[in-house]
Amino acid sequence: MKRMSSRSLRRRLAATGTVGLTAVLALTACSQGAPATQESADSGAVSEATSEMPAELVGAKVAIVQQSGQGDYFQQYLNGTRQQAEALGFELSAYDAQGDNATQATQLEQAISSGVDAIIVRHGFPDTLCPGVNDAISKGIAVIAYDVNVSECADGVIQTQQSDEIMAQLVLDRMLEDIGEGAAVGYVNVEGIAPLDRRDAVWRQFVADNGWDQLFKTGSFTSSSASDSAPMVAAAMQANSSVTAIYAPYDEFTKGTLTGLDQVSGSDDVLVYGADISNADIELMRAEGSRWVATGATDPNAIGAAVLRTLALSMADELDAQLVEFPPVLVTQEMLREDDIKNMEDLRAAVSELNLSQVSTADWMSVVSF
């Protein structure tokens, strides 16, 4: 099949588009939390419980220990966690290590010492977290992990995550459709972060299967990933001007990629493929001349709430799975423009699959849905 040139494709994307709503659903589905900001201030609807909560859960104290709370995704995630905790009458305390792994380990110890009943560990590294997780479990504290693989070194942990393999597959299928085989490509990612590693495995397979020529890999995972990655992308592109498309599978990396490309003359036709979604991401994708073609996404507000409900089920001995995954969808520039989707509220209305209110529920739960 004849492939459309990057210039022709960008002209097509700049138009209103004729593709229609192409949200692609998967069966099973990254990212981290912080104090709620305007970006993460979405208010969910609450459906009231129809029976009494188990007595041992009433007024439970829960801590969320985050490797980093910076970035749109993480702020939305914490917003969902907070609202679900409030709906259940749980007392929630939040810790943000601001990207420092040693600090996260220390904060996990602080959470344990504070006398909480349960802990959500979100992102980070098993080597620094497993001692604390095992200590918490030995003290009878329930532990649930999101996007950090501590279950292999700590028995009794409930593992939750997006289906990152499917998320990457959705986006890279679109990238292949756009650029074809044998293309020169760039990559913005880091190693050692569980969800990014899962996406990386899919990327490497796509590169091998389709003869893509990966000319660079760059990026920095910090408390300011977007701004720190931007100059790295700019330098990589200046040294590799033949790159036609870039995969940046975390929205802070995607934003940093867009900023970096803005600093490189002659890069207007470079296509960008990302991950995650937020109000800010939607605005960037819809912008005139935007390079951001497609992203694989879940609603982080909904995931934050669903993880807390999964924890509550586990505390009540009503959870029958050790791994709970959340399904992603494909969001494209065309669908945002054609369906006039301007923000997360619009996107939820257009893509019902983002609603996780049926995941990890019980009749004794008041459920927050977004």
From TrEMBL:
Task: Give an example GO cellular component term for this record.
Answer: outer membrane-bounded periplasmic space
Record carries keyword Signal: yes
Q: Which InterPro entries match?
A: Bact_Solute-Bind_Prot2, Peripla_BP_I, SBP_2_dom
User: Which coarse location class applies to the principal site listed for this UniProt protein?
Assistant: other
Alphabetically, the GO molecular function entries are:
carbohydrate binding
Q: Which residues form the Periplasmic binding protein domain?
A: 63-312
Q: Where in the cell is it found?
A: Cell envelope
Q: Which residues form a coiled coil?
A: none
Instruction: Please give the name of this protein.
Output: ABC transporter binding protein
Q: Which organism is this protein's natural source?
A: Microbacterium esteraromaticum
